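Filed under: proteins

Residues; backbone shape codes:
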Amino acid sequence: MLQELIRRQRLVLCAVVVAAGLPGIAAAAPHANCDEACLKSVMDGYLHALEAHDPSRLKVAPNVRFTENGVAIPLGEALWVTLSGLGSYRHDFFDPANGAVISYVTMKENGTPGYLMVRLKLADQRLTEVETVVNRDAPPALTQPAYEPLWDQVEPKAQRLTRQQLIEGALAYMRAVALEKGELAPFGESCIRLENGMVMALGPHDRPPVPLKPLAHDDDWAAAVRLSLGMGCSKQINTGVYAFINEYDNARFPLVDVDRQIVFSVFDFRRRGTVKTVTMPNGRTYPMMPSTQWPNEVLNTEAWKFQNGKITRVEAVFLGNRTYKQGTGWPGGRKGEKRPT
């Protein structure tokens, strides 16, 4: 009873501070004592401050580090200046043990729609890390529906992977894509992947959770991807439709939710620039995207949902066509692996 009373008092205090608009997120306790509801209020406070273009509302550590698209800049610059407002879509992820909360949100910047990833790290009642990735000029953000309730489902204890096993499963996904071997990852039969709001993979019996964008052409890379929908994630990778990705690197795992079996990573997917085409099972050969035809990399943020030990949902917000081997802008990532040339 005493523990429950303390928990309730903490949540009330955190909510009061945010509602009152006091500077920052002052009431957030050290991260070990800030549960999901507390972390949600921390993210609420950050997003409200962002909309108000006022970073002074945040309570930050003296050495707080802020990045936008992998570049360290002063907190309050870049999107803090140009944001028009947030959209209706928001998907939160929590890891109270690490003082971590991450959100995918839709937004407009000077009236142009886009996607935003925000990662916050809380320690000693202050924000110590703020990492953002902005995917600009993304029309699907205007019509993005709510995320699937499946993401919020707490999985049965008997079917849960450990924190380390979830991380290893996410790494297996990266390896599968980079090495062009779908069987390396623990994919479920149902496997839906969203990238910057677009459906990029479906299982044989899955329905698209968002509307499929009409194809402008029937002979380009987007048409090849459309052909692959319904194959499932493993078979899709084996077609070579993502063969322009030849390496992953710098993988960090700032958030793991063991109860919901979700793991989140920031990492790089690299493109060597040498894969020109893909021949799909229908016998037709399709050109790869023009943006894959020179050495560059993708700053990727990705969340995986596991059920019964299998990857069943994937959601990503990323920035492509960055300088080759630019990195994520943060230290501590794991050394990756690349496909032999």
About this structure: Confidence is low (pLDDT under 50) at residues 1-31. The chain has two domains: 2-143, 153-338. Residues 2-143 form a domain with the Nuclear Transport Factor 2; Chain: A, fold (CATH 3.10.450.50). The longest helix spans residues 2-20.
